[in-house]
Write a structure and sequence with these properties.
Elements: E1 4-10, E2 13-18, H1 28-31, E3 64-70, H2 82-95, E4 101-107, H3 112-123, E5 129-132, H4 139-149, E6 154-159, E7 162-164, H5 168-178, E8 182-186, H6 196-206, E9 211-216, H7 221-230, H8 235-242, E10 247-252, E11 255-258, E12 265-269, H9 270-276, H10 289-298, E13 302-306, E14 311-313, H11 320-323, H12 346-352, H13 354-371
Parallel strand pairs: 3-4, 3-6, 4-5, 8-13
Antiparallel strand pairs: 1-2, 6-12, 7-14, 9-10, 10-11, 11-13
Length: 374
């Protein structure tokens, strides 16, 4: 392929495209396939001036960037009910928030229908920042990009399977702004989150003069049951296990919070998460989140949650049990067909061919339901 190729002729001006940089140390004329740079490349000079020169943007980032990580590669098996869940997440975040914020969505390699939906939301102004990856970078990798790109000093992060109740952001910000040295604030908690290596900083703070610490049973049983349903666990077994776990409340300046947080939904100072995320790319699609929790705690930051549940985990579908309290418009039941894109390689083109891919996704869906019965 030539390094310089002629693209079009408009009037007396020729336009060229550089397909790659010249090799180091090569003569310019040799590196441009014999084109005389003194004669022909001069015709690539700019036409007019950039209209943005000398102007300033009126945009100023909000203090809070609300960030959602999206990954829906198709609509079969585990993912067949995920599109309505995504709609519920983004709708509740936008409609139930009064504090100014910028919405950042990171699409971690979703199918074409999800990409189109997110693009439409951006065109309508609901999404201010839309980042896309051609492939799944893993959760830790996506978090590194999200927290690097977020313009706000505070990031309200969540996976794309949460529903937000009115006042969620105000309640989480109140904790962040009241307690000192806060690292993470979540909108819900469950007893299993009170692990010693993730809450020791909060407990130490609660024992100081001027603060308070209470031990006992404080998490409502319906919160434990809802979480079990949304994560595919047995509610009775989870309730029995929770009965053996000691829970803690931290009090400061008249405000009470659970002494635990979760990595799937949290509000945090941007700098804290950037400091505590893994330094190296591991390539893992999942995992490394407990390590993040432990790193935040180890650095001495408090990990807390609101007493009142302000965020509800939905899981991979809108079940009747969890959808009871949601607005009627959120209960979307139809899902579009999966994207049937191809690939340059003949084998991938074959497996990506509509009839073949549809057959395989259908088989995958049936196997998924056989392994995971209702």
């Amino acid at each position: 392929m030539p390094i310089v190729s002629r693209e079009a002729v408009s009037g007396s001006t020729r336009y060229y495209t550089l397909s790659k940089l010249p090799p180091a140390g090569a003569a310019l004329k040799e590196a441009t396939n014999g084109i005389d740079p003194d004669r022909e490349l001069i015709e690539m000079s700019r036409l007019g001036m950039n209209p943005g020169r000398g102007k300033a943007s009126g945009y100023r980032p909000a203090r809070v960037t609300a960030a959602v990580l999206v990954y829906i590669p198709h609509f079969s098996g585990y993912f067949e009910g995920r599109f309505p869940v995504l709609i519920a997440c983004l709708t509740s975040m936008v409609e139930n928030t009064t504090v100014p914020f910028d919405l950042l969505v990171f699409d971690n390699g979703s199918c074409a229908e999800v990409q189109d939906y997110l693009g439409e939301l951006q065109s309508r102004g609901a999404i201010q920042l839309l980042l896309r990856s051609a492939r799944n970078l893993g959760k830790a990798g996506a978090l590194r990009l999200i927290f690097g790109a977020a313009p706000g000093e505070v990031v309200a992060y969540c996976d794309d399977d949460f529903y937000y109740f009115p006042g969620w952001l105000e309640a989480q910000l109140e904790i962040l702004d009241t307690f000192p040295n806060v690292g993470m604030v979540s909108g819900y908690t469950i007893p299993s989150l009170f692990a010693p290596d993730r809450i020791s900083a909060a407990l130490e703070f609660g024992r100081r003069q001027g603060a308070g610490l209470k031990a006992g049973k404080f998490v409502p049983e319906d919160h434990i049951r809802d979480w079990a349903l949304s994560t595919g666990r047995n509610p009775n077994q989870e309730l029995a296990a929770a009965a053996e776990i000691e829970e803690f409340l931290v009090e400061y300046r008249g405000l009470s919070a659970f002494a635990a947080a979760n990595h799937d939904q949290f509000l945090a100072p941007k700098r804290v998460i950037q400091q505590c995320l893994p330094a190296e790319w591991s390539g893992k699609l999942m995992g490394e989140m407990l390590e993040l929790d432990e790193a935040v705690n180890r650095a001495g930051y408090l990990r807390l949650s609101t007493r009142q549940r302000t965020a509800l985990h939905l899981g991979n579908r809108l079940s009747e049990e969890l959808a009871v309290g949601l607005p009627a418009g959120i209960r979307v039941t139809s899902t579009p067909s999966p994207s049937l894109g191809g690939s340059p390689r003949w084998s991938r083109r074959f497996w990506g061919w509509g009839p073949i891919r549809g057959l395989l996704l259908g088989l995958y869906s049936r196997l998924f339901h056989l392994i995971n019965p209702e």
